[in-house]
Amino acid sequence: MEVAVLIPFLILYLVIRYFAGDHETASGKDTRRFASGIELYKAGKFREAYDYFDTVLREYPKSAVAYAYRGKCSLAEGNIHSALYNFTQALSYDNTLSECYLEKGKILLSQQQYRDAFREYDKAVWFSHGNNPEILRERGIARMRVKLYRQSSADFARAVELGDEESCNILMQPPFYGVPLKKINSLKSR
Cα–Cα–Cα angle for 16, 20, 22, nearest 5°? Predict the structure, then answer.
């Protein structure tokens, strides 16, 4: 009997906690908090943005967003080792940042570390829910480098479905010759 009386109060308590709680992630808060530095990066002021995020990291040493943007600034300035370090640090604090996996994959692909690049792209696809055509295209390229043509053509085809023209161009060349595109077009015509 006592349990039956307490259950409605417990449910009411849980509902109030849910609606009164803060549902924004730490990365979401940091993205808002560091908007001025992000704007510097987007404006192409990489040195200023790097200095901004370097200063921010002294105050917020566990900010994945600050590490990610400092890594992007390093990459834009051609310092790939610093960029790799920053992306790795960012992922150690928030392993859901698909952009960091994407950038790490690009660096590894440029260094001809195709299997490692593929692993990074695979994680990026997972955390982007397979809805980012650039990530799919890059993973397709990494798979192509290790001769996994069927899987790479599937990545390119999905990227084309999402509107990626570069993937379409890749599929029109050897070894694909547009075969997956014929499948995509037949599905769209139904």
Answer: 140
Residue type, 52: Y
> Residue written as tokens 């593929």?
118
Taking only the tens place, the pLDDT of each residue in 93-105 is 999 999 999 999 9
Q: What are phi and psi of 142, to 5 degrees?
A: -65, -40
190, two tokens:
């139904």
Q: Measure the CA–CA gap between 62 and 96, rounded to whole angstroms.
A: 15
Give me 85's structure tokens.
């370090």
pLDDT > 70? residue 90? yes
Residue 106 to residue 142: CA distance in whole angstroms: 9
How many beta carbons lie within 10 A of that of residue 21, not counting itself? 8
- 187 has pLDDT over 60: no
189 secondary structure, DSSP code: T
Question: Which DSSP category does 173 fall into?
Answer: S
CA distance linking residue 27 with residue 116, whole number of Å: 26
- pLDDT value of position 26: 82
Q: Could you tell me if residue 25 is left (phi over 0), alpha (psi between -120 and 50 degrees) or otherwise beta? A: beta
70 within 8 A of 53, measured Cβ to Cβ: yes
Share the mean pLDDT of the chain. 90
| Distance of alpha carbon 170 from alpha carbon 80, whole angstroms | 27
Residue 189 has pLDDT above 80, yes or no: no
